[in-house]
Amino acid sequence: MSDTKMKGDIAEQAVIFAALKRNWNVLQPIGDRLPYDLVLEVNNKFIKIQVKSAWFDNKTENWVIDNRRCKTNRRKMIQETYRKSDFDFAIAYLDELEVFYIFPIDVFTSYSGPIHMVEAEKRQRKPRSSNYRESWDLIQNRAYQEEIPDRISIKFGETADVAIPSQA
After folding, report:
1. What pLDDT band is residue 46 in, cutting at 50, 70 and 90?
2. Of 164, 150, 106, whose CA–CA distance to 132 is shortest?
3. What gap in Å lies between CA 123 and CA 142, rounded to an integer?
4. Helices (H), 23-163
5. Could you tell me the maximum CA-CA distance found in the chain, to the nearest angstrom?
6. How would you class 64 by CB atoms within 10 Å of its CB: exposed for 0-12, middle for 13-18, buried for 19 or more?
7. Sorting pLDDT into bands at 50, 70 and 90, what band is 148?
8. How high is the mean pLDDT of the chain?
9. Model confidence over 5-17: pLDDT tens digits?
């Protein structure tokens, strides 16, 4: 299959299916102008996901994804680096193997170029990307992190230096 748009659609549907099997809700934005492809609702928290379809590089015998955003502007393709605020996780899908790599945004953007994923047991030392193979627990853990609300310590009977709207 050579159509990159079709490969991207297949990768997105595979991520949606995997999320639904985990009983997560999935929201899909209309259009493709946003820096993320999906939003997962896990434990009442929204997590933005960028989906990448990996290709097999025959020369290196690795699966590869680009960690840049590609946009087409009529006649030319524009590539930009992602910002840490663009999404929470990038999920790479290796279609032929039906394998997912789940990269937190800070890890994804820390690569200086394409990300290589090695599925063959040919190396003595595993690449850094191997830590993220099928690491769905990273999304689960992110959703269950407790938020610590800002609190003002006031003893009973004390007044706070806060104006009450009805008394302002």
Report:
1. very high
2. 106
3. 31
4. 105-110, 137-144
5. 73
6. middle
7. very low
8. 84
9. 899 999 999 999 9
Do the beta carbons of residue 35 and residue 88 sit within 8 Å?
no
Report the C-alpha gap between 55 and 11 in whole angstroms: 11
Nearest-angstrom CA–CA distance, 46 and 22: 15
3-state helix, strand, coil split of the chain in percent (to 5) is 25, 30, 45
Q: How far apart are the first and last CA of the chain?
A: 67
The H or E element spanning position 9 is helix 4-21
CB under 8 Å to 92, separation ≥6 — which residues? Answer: 52, 53, 54, 63, 65, 100, 101, 103, 115, 117
List domains and CATH numbers for the chain.
4-167 (3.40.1350.10)
DSSP string, 13-48: HHHHHHHHHTT-EEE--SSS-SS-SEEEEETTEEEE
Alpha carbon 26 to chain centroid, angstroms: 13
What pTM does this model have? 0.80
Residues listed for the chain: 168
